[in-house]
Each structure stands twice: as C-alpha cells, then as structure tokens.
C-alpha cells in the first residue's frame, strides 16, 4: 500500500494548511435580517460554512404539555442540508443534529431572559447549507444574531469558536482538513462575551492541562473577535433602517 503523504498542519513559520496563523479565524461575514417573514434572522459565512438562522417567537407553546409556567422554552433546530457535504447527507435528522440542537439551545437559554416569557416558545431554526467543520458554533453565532434581530431581550450575545490541536500545535477555528488530522482535538467553545461565562464546551480528543489553558485563552480571544463581527452585523441592519438615528 502506498504511504500516505504526511501533512504539516503548522509549518516552521507558524503557518497552517490554508495559510492562517495559529490564532487566526477563518473570514467571517454576517448579515442580519435576511428572511423578512421571520421575526429575526441572519446569514453567516464562516470560511466555507454557510448558515441561515431564523427565529420566531416568543409565541404560544405547542404542544401545550411542552410549555413551562416559569420560562420560554427554546426550541432549537440545527439541520444540515443534504447537499452541504460531499457525501450526500441523509436529510432525516440524526443523533448528531439532535445533540447539536440541544447544546446550542441550552447555550442560548443562558443569554435570553427566558423567565420573562412563561408559557411560550422561541423557535430557532438553523439550516447549514455548506459545512466545513465548526458548523455548530457557526449555527450558534448566527442564531444569536437572529435572536437579537428579533428583538428578544438578551443579557448578552453568544459568541464562540472552535479551538483545538492538530500536528501537536494549538490552533483556533479548525477547518475540516484540520479536524481530520490524526492527532486532532476539537473543542467547540462559546461564551457570553461580557461575563466570559462558558455556555458551550465540548471536547473531542485528549489534551493536557497546559494545552487546554493555552487553547482556552486563544478560544476566548477569538470569540471576542466574533462578538465584534456580530455587533457590526446588527448595527449595519438597524442603522440602515434609521433606528440608530432616532
Ligand atoms: P461541527 O460541524 O460542529 O464541527 P462535527 O465535528 O460533528 O461538527 O462535524 C465536523 C464536520 O464534518 C461538519 O462540519 C461537516 O463538514 C462534516 N460532517 C458532519 N456530518 C456529516 C455527514 N453526515 N456527512 C458528511 N460530512 C459530515
């Protein structure tokens, strides 16, 4: 069998496979309010990832037995389009999508003043139309902007990034090639940027404590960059409508 070519994930100059530095995010572009029918929405491009998020609510909670007399129920639906990955993705929601919907919904619940809207639900649907790793954080980032666009009272945004390791080096925002490295560690991380509270943290792989400290610091710093892009998207939308001029 022919030997597979060994990839250098971070070269001697600190450059990654796509030319990024170790702590550099892929290019991120967010547009708020792209789906006029929805109460709030966003379109996000994060590297090759392309994501739509739409928010409806707070509205009547159906079926009624799912309602809570104490808070709004966040119903987060993460879906990957069949054409979003090279091997056709089975359109039926699988366990991975259910897991991602759960962790993203739980993360957003920390940011939204859910206690102000008892017996209601907030529907958040995220459709991944192109996926290249880091799609759950892309989904959460877009959903957070869409919730703010919907005017839902929030104590903070939710901002995050993937962080981890490939080729023995700590790197921020792994793409698919890096996630597939033999020693890859992938840590999706999301925070409330003002309090730095961690609202999503998952770990796929093994890290030492020292590596984790470095990764965490880099992840928080990169998440703050994402936060600035989210704010910029919202300001662009609302200043366009003249809201800022009032
Ligand atoms: P995340 O997208 O949050 O990093 P995963 O680590 O589970 O989540 O997935 C990494 C990447 O693997 C996805 O972004 C996507 O590019 C690819 N992928 C996930 N599920 C499938 C699938 N069913 N078929 C093909 N590729 C997939």
Descriptive account of the structure:
The structure is a single chain. The protein has about 250 residues and is of the alpha+beta class. It is about 30% helix and about 30% strand. The longest helix is centred in the last third of the chain and has 32 residues, at about 210-240. The radius of gyration is 19 Å and the shape is globular. The N and C termini lie far apart (about 70 Å). The model has no long low-confidence stretch (mean pLDDT about 95). Adenosine-5'-diphosphate (ADP) binds near residues 133 and 186.
Backbone CA Rg: 19 Å
Number of strands: 9
- Classify the beta-strand content into a percent band: 25-35%
Structural class by SSE content: alpha+beta
Largest sheet: 5 strands, mixed
Indicate the percent of residues in helices: 25-40%
Encode the helix/strand succession as letters. EEEEHEHEEHEEH
Which word captures the global form? globular
Helical stretch tally = 4
């Amino acid at each position: 069998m022919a030997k597979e070519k060994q990839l250098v994930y971070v070269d001697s100059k600190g450059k990654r496979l796509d030319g990024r530095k170790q702590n550099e995010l892929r290019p991120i572009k967010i547009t708020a309010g792209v789906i006029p029918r929805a109460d709030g929405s966003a379109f996000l491009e994060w590297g090759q990832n392309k994501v739509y998020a739409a928010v409806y609510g707070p509205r009547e909670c159906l079926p009624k037995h799912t309602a809570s007399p104490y808070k709004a129920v966040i119903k987060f639906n993460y879906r990957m389009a069949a054409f979003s990955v090279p091997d056709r993705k089975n359109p039926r929601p699988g366990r991975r999508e259910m897991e991602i919907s759960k962790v993203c919904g739980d993360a957003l619940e920390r940011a939204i003043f859910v206690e102000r809207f008892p017996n209601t639900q907030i529907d958040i649907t995220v459709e991944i139309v192109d996926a290249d790793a880091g799609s759950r954080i892309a989904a959460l980032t877009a959903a957070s902007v869409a919730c703010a666009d919907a005017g839902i009272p929030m104590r903070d945004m939710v901002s995050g990034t993937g962080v981890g390791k490939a080729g023995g080096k700590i790197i921020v925002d792994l793409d698919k090639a890096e996630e597939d490295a033999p020693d890859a560690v992938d840590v999706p991380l999301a925070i409330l940027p003002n309090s730095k509270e961690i609202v999503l943290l998952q770990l796929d792989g093994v890290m030492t404590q020292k590596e984790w400290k470095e990764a965490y610091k880099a992840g928080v710093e990169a998440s703050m960059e994402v936060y600035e892009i989210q704010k910029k998207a919202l300001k662009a939308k609302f200043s366009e409508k003249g809201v800022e001029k009032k």
